[in-house]
């Protein structure tokens, strides 16, 4: 579910504003055969092209009197060439010379102190990476003694990188490169902390130390989005309430920079609208209601907000913990009604929404049938619900697959289950408990039985307390 399409381009439009207008960048590349080079920028987790220049005499000239390149990491690119450079608090008027083969090694900078520092750093990292790769390759076939020595050499290389980075952040603390290094570094946990839980808590608390998320330059680096993602994936408990607390912290840390804050909100709303983790759809609903539908997102179009509201209203009723919406179906005879509320005997009811002709359903249906007897042994029942209205095709499929569970359909469109259960694609599986509340959704057919076992065990442990 892509709930916000095109907003990143809207945010990127802020690229050409503020700072000193205009840029003048020359790139000479010995041996280049391309007819044009392209100028681009890192933005969030993506790259965007901003300008093109014809190659004349193995050189290209990017120039504009009006457009502005804001602080960040940029690149000059062709199918056979790639070089990065920085823009940071200095007039964007400089030149580069290099060669097509190994352009970083041969890169010369004219008119930009920051880019000279950046180029030197790139060369250092390139050399260290090559040395590390050679040592790693040698360790593959080495005996234990040799491998130990190679590992020690690799650790020396890592230490050299850390020390070089420390030198840059100390001696060039206000440069773009120093910001990028700080952004990419992991949290250094004091040696005095040995307990794993305390290490986790320390890293979570200090994750953004020495990083100013309000800095407009950070969003124009390849590390900004991954830094935010690492915080949420590695240092936030995967529970909706915990994730929302972390998102609230990110919003607070970007309260002085609308562009960075908006990018985080848009990115995370889409992330949790398409989450692969069961139950985390709650974060999408909570985010939408708190930050988008509350009047705070005045910068968004009414159409986009309407789309978000529609998705929230459709998703909210079938989140985990909600009572399952009642749907009325008919069986394969088309004469006997099936009312969900009357299926009261089993402790669990599995709702399996499928289309006989969908490719993934053809894999999931046999998987669910394979476990059906085991599911029944857990005092659970399966209600198979076709999403098609072609009765002949449905009946044929039920017979062909020997579907021994309860089979239902709505060939007359009397029960809007597609909207009630947010069926955007098939297959879709829901698991309901004894009270017919949703306890699982979007779970794979092969995991249904194990989930019910886990839920039963969990309930027994709760009853003992």
What is the CATH domain class of the largest domain? Alpha Beta
Largest sheet: 5 strands, mixed
Q: H/E element string?
A: HEEEEEEEEHHHHHHHHHEEEHHEHEHEEH
Count of extended strands:
15
Radius of gyration: 29 Å
Poorly predicted sequence stretches spanning 5 or more consecutive residues: 5-18
- Strand line-up of the largest beta sheet: 13-12-11-14-15
Give the overall shape: elongated
> Overall pLDDT, averaged?
91
CATH H-level superfamily title of the largest domain? Glutaredoxin
| Structural domain tally | 4
Question: Which structural class do you get from the secondary structure elements?
Answer: alpha+beta
What separation lies between the terminal Cα atoms?
40 Å
> What is the fold-level CATH name, i.e. the topology of the largest domain?
Glutaredoxin
Q: With helices defined by DSSP (H or I, 4 residues minimum), what is the helix count?
A: 15
Strand portion = 15-25%
